[in-house]
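W.,

You were right to be curious about this one. When I first looked at the sequence I had no strong expectations either way, so I just let the prediction run and decided to look at it fresh. Below is the sequence, 233 residues in total, followed by the output.
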Amino acid sequence: MANFRTSAIVSDIAGSVGGNVFSRGKGGPIIRNRRKPVNPRSALQNTRRARAAYLATYWSKTLTDQQRTDWRAYAAGTAWTNKLGDSIEITGNAAFVRLNTLAFMYSSTVLAAAPLAMGHAGGVTLAFTAENDTSKIQLAEPGGAFDKDIDGHFLMISMGLPSEAGRLGIPKGMRYVSHTAGDSGAPPAFPLELTSAYTMAAGQLITIKAMFQDESNRVSGPFFASATAAPSI
């Protein structure tokens, strides 16, 4: 692994090019050799592959021409960004897969109809505590766009690999933890107790990620929050 200097032509870079992987660390941009990932064929990996194959077939075989046209219109009328925050264009198929990948976390029903409103779901703010003795995360009621009393609001929570306090950046190894949905009749109770996806040690930095889907089936970008794991009292 080595550091490198950007230029007036290339101000930032992330991802892989050829046999090199570009990212950013504490000391600035870094470059390392690309490693071929191991294919463990885990249950989760197989499930994700099966879902991707199912959605690909659903797009081509089940959706009507009008539904595909609506998804293309939604993709074209919505601002999308890549890892560097640059504006990009995606296909209607890609938008269909993105929104349904999250919907699969709480329902087996495919969102065949594209959102009527353009754009993404609003943002959410997160606050939580983590106790290493009990391996529990207590999630406070989120702020922002998520409303526990609105039917169709959905929040998915993931957790990164615990890291040493003071470490910068988004942790690796994001794993699904739980999800909750708004309900006008019986809203979820907060704080919401979640079981940690990893073993936590007191003093470690714990980071969670939330994805929000609104009543129009639009999906937000990822939102993160961090807290230091503490022994239970």
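Here's what jumped out at me. The longest strand covers residues 205-213. And, maybe more interesting for your project: The chain has two domains: 43-103, 124-228.

Coffee later to discuss?

I.
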